[in-house]
Write the structure tokens for this entry.
Amino acid sequence: MVRLTSIYTKTGDDGTTGLATGQRVAKDDLAVEAYGTADEANSAIGLAVLAADAANDAGLAALLRSIQHDLFDLGADLATPLTKDEQPGTRLRVVPTQVARLEREIDSRNERLAPLNSFVLPGGAPAAAHLHLARTIVRRAERIGVTLMNSRPGAVNPEAIKYLNRLSDLLFVLARCANANGASDVLWTPGANRRG
């Protein structure tokens, strides 16, 4: 259990922050960028929860809230570099079952959607717009996570990167579902504004 008694500590006033291991790193360190971007995605998902609640879509809201918990797990994972001698279960890590749950959700919800003939523009219903925003932030977190993983071989849990990859796919599918199962998708028209 996490207990926060003071919101400001002043320890970051020098431009550093502490990883979960206690190691001090610069606030623009790749690990901080990665878990910070996951936190940003979590905030965008929070807005999607509000939009789902407003649309009386309790199932979507519940799913998104569960994902918010996963994203905190993922942030803790990224804030704790893997070590060679780490024993399984001693640190909070994203695990394959969390990735598999996203895959099941994608498969289940994608079944009701018609195939696409064009790319989808972010928009449509408010929930869909928020889900598209969250999707793009998750993709950025994934890109930063991959850079982190490549720059520190063996220090990043590969399941965390897989989770981000699947999550962005799920958010895309959920956005289409929020757009009346794709009927209200806003489709890209290539070259639509090229004529004067």
User: Anything to note?
Assistant: The longest strand covers residues 16-18. The CA atoms of residues 55 and 127 lie 8 Å apart. The longest helix spans residues 126-151. The chain has a mean pLDDT of 91.
